[in-house]
Structure formats: C-alpha cells, structure tokens
Amino acid sequence: MLNIGERMIQLRKQFNLSQEDFAKRIEVSRTIIGNYERNANTPSIEVLMKMAKTFDVTVDYLIGGGEVFSYDKEVMKHIEDIDKLDRNQRTPVISRR
C-alpha cells in the first residue's frame, strides 16, 4: 500500500502538474504540497477532497485504498449499473470475451 505522499506524487506527475500548479488548484502553498509528499504533514479532509476532485479519484484511493478506486468514474458507474441487474441479465454482460 502506498502512503499519501507517494500517491500524490504519482498522480501529480500523471497529470503533469508541478507542485506549484497543484498547490494553486487546491488552494494551499507549494511548501505544504512538499510537506504532504514527504509525509511531514497530513492533509485535512477538506484538502483531501480537493485533491480527489482534481485527480478525479476517491479520497479512499488517496489514503491507500485499492487500485479499483483509481478507475474512471464513468467506468465505475457502468459497474454499478451491471451490479443492479438480476443474475440472468448480468451473466451475458459479464461473460463477454
């Protein structure tokens, strides 16, 4: 499991954001971002929510939840829709290859 700092670095680089750019997006200082990434400070829930929104992931993913939480929200919506189907409807959808 990654720590918050490592996950932040990973996502920030994936989105091609400098520490300064990311700090502006979530309304904190660049110094704070550096502290978070080194795990010298822990972000508040409010800041975690801003981070999650910026990266389009869940707070759970940021704090070390499973990889499934990094999936695109549209994909997750489709999975939820499939889960609502009864077994007979779900089987053909899941069994496609």
Q: Your description of this structure?
A:
By secondary structure, the protein is mostly helical. It has 7 helices and no strands.
Key words describing this protein structure:
about 100 residues; mainly alpha
Total helical elements:
7
Mean pLDDT: 83
Order of helices and strands: HHHHHHH
Shape designation: elongated
> In what range is the share of β-strand residues?
under 5%
Rg from alpha-carbon coordinates: 17 Å
- Describe the biggest sheet? none
Question: What structural class results from the helix and strand content?
Answer: mainly alpha
| Low-pLDDT residue spans | none
Span from first to last CA?
A: 31 Å
Helix content: 55-70%
Beta-strand segment tally: 0
Q: What's this, in brief?
A:
This protein has 7 helices and no strands.
Task: Present the secondary structure layout.
Blueprint: H1 4-14, H2 19-26, H3 30-37, H4 45-55, H5 59-62, H6 73-84, H7 87-95
